[in-house]
């Protein structure tokens, strides 16, 4: 068959049976290998759908510019569509994304603007905000906004879902996929459940993301949000493409478990896949261990290709430095907390307490930094050096409430955050917080990291 352009080759990706990493699990585990798309990821499906729908609606006109915030794969799909249809592309990306993703987008003619990861979505420096601002400033531009654009989930409802149903001859009992923008999970799940309401859908989330807690409680808990390394899944926002009503369960996966499984898929199954693929398979298999029975058939989406991650999960040195290889012991936040042997009690001050009482508490406890709380939630922080400067400028502040002088709240990090991650955050944030398995909060300072590094 001869195609008119590369975008006509999108879809109809193969289904492959897992044989080794699922050892001991009942039922059949199949994976849909999306790196067979021309842009090497499943994002090609929704990228072309968003572009063509925008053309139909008159939003995207000849000679226009496509502007999008992306983790890389959506950008590649949009870039291929732009090449075929004659558009320009500008993409914003968070600085945690791999260099390979940035270089690939540049290779297909896109302009890439790298933005900081550890800022809120509303911050003008975030890759969400920068993309929106460019769209406002550049005439004849189109901002697809993959997070809220309904063409995202519809692309998978129209293609991925039917392909899975046909490939399995309708004999699918479970569907699992990572959840980021939500399109591939929600659109596919919606289609499959319309064919058979008994199909169980499992969304894979990462620690540091809000999805699992929100699904189970209906509460958007900012305590769940903290920096993580895995690319392509999880969010600190609730995209409109995430339809929680068609997702039955969520499983969270750590950065380490995800990275290790990604490498196993390559070495044991011959599937050279991306990082979030490891998340999807590890999480799905954790669910399958307890819930699948003989005769069941689970399908897992593998979103992208391993070439995007050669400098990270496929790099032994990078893996060792993050404590993800078993041949080197590398301290984590969990190790720092365990080393305290339960003797540590976090000192906090209430938002409506006086500055004078905060100073007295810090002196009594011998601490230079202290979290500020309100109704059990961390809402701010005090640092002795900055507090001193404020008091020198205005001595009357000692009788004011803490809320008048407090700084931003310290960031929460994952228990398995390694020393390099902790060090980079503490350098910027002065101290970080971590919540243990008993939901107790601990503070980690530069001193704690130095002590752990010299053990």
How much strand? Answer: 15-25%
Helix content: 25-40%
Oligomerization category of the chains in this entry: single chain
**Average pLDDT value?**
90
General form: globular
Count of beta strands: 16
Compute the CA-based radius of gyration: 24 Å
Largest beta-sheet characterization: 6 strands, mixed
Task: Report low-confidence residues grouped into runs of 5 or more.
Answer: none
Class per helix and strand makeup: alpha/beta
Distance between the termini: 63 Å
Total helices: the number is 16
Strand order of the largest sheet: 1-2-10-7-8-9
Tags for this model:
four-stranded parallel sheet, single chain, six-stranded mixed sheet, 16 strands, 455 residues
Task: Give a written overview of the molecule.
This protein is an alpha/beta fold and 455 residues long. It is built from 16 helices and 16 strands. The protein has helices at 43-56, 73-85, 99-107, 127-137, 151-158, 160-167, 183-195, 211-217, 255-269, 275-291, 316-321, 333-338, 355-365, 384-393, 419-429, 446-453, and strands at 15-17, 28-33, 65-69, 88-94, 111-115, 141-142, 174-178, 200-206, 249-253, 297-302, 349-350, 369-374, 377-383, 412-413, 431-435, 441-445. Strands 1-2-10-7-8-9 form a 6-stranded mixed beta sheet, with helices on both faces. The chain has a 4-stranded parallel beta sheet with strand order 5-4-3-6, sandwiched between helices. Strands 11-12-13 form a 3-stranded mixed beta sheet. Strand 11, helix 13 and strand 12 form a beta-alpha-beta unit. Helix 1 crosses helix 2 (73-85). It starts with 14 loop residues before the first strand and ends with a helix.
